[in-house]
Amino acid sequence: MMDINALPYRPCVGIMLINPAGLVFVGQRIDNLVEAWQMPQGGIDDGEEPQTAAMRELGEEIGTEKAEIIAESAGWLNYDLPLELIPKVWKGRYRGQRQKWYAMRFLGTDADINIATSHPEFAAWRWVEHHQLPDLIVPFKRDLYQEIVAEFAPLFGGAAR
Predict the structure, then answer these.
(1) 110-116: long-range contacts (C-beta < 8 A, 24 or more apart)?
(2) What is the pTM of this model?
(3) N or C, fewer C-beta in 10 Å, the chain?
(4) Long-range CB contact pairs, 129-133, < 8 A, 24+
(5) Which residue, among 88, 106, 90, 87, has the nearest Cα to 98 in the 3D structure?
(6) 76-97: per-residue pLDDT in tens?
């Protein structure tokens, strides 16, 4: 039997991409069987700085790096995968992810976003209000999304709802 607590967290970055209207980018994952939307995120390569990983992941997942970092999460946020997913995700090497989050100002236009990348992760995308984010994500990431929305709420001119 696998000792879940002995497994490490996968080092990762998350990106809250904010357009000029104050809306946040979300993509619908290709591999989800349920309709769940998430912000871009991805692993940090060995020796890679988290800020560099965030810009790389933005390009890999939505086809553009037309953004600038405007805020960084104070700490690292973790989430645990549901037990049934651990053997299926990342070859069973991780219990979940440890994420450093970045808020980014989008400097492009919608035409600059192209989710048909070389390794597509999203089937569709849209802009949403920041307070909607926890309701759109898969349940096992909801607490993390609530934390990051609360932390970045001042960027939207107020507190989280």
Answers:
(1) 112/63, 112/64, 112/66, 113/25, 113/62, 113/63, 113/64, 114/62, 114/63, 114/64, 115/27, 115/61, 115/62, 115/63, 116/63
(2) 0.92
(3) N
(4) 129/23, 129/24, 130/16, 130/18, 130/22, 130/23, 130/24, 130/156, 130/160, 131/160, 131/161, 133/24, 133/26, 133/39
(5) 90
(6) 999 998 888 887 778 888 889 9
- Domain chopping of the chain, boundaries: 9-156
d(C-alpha 25, C-alpha 142), whole Å: 17
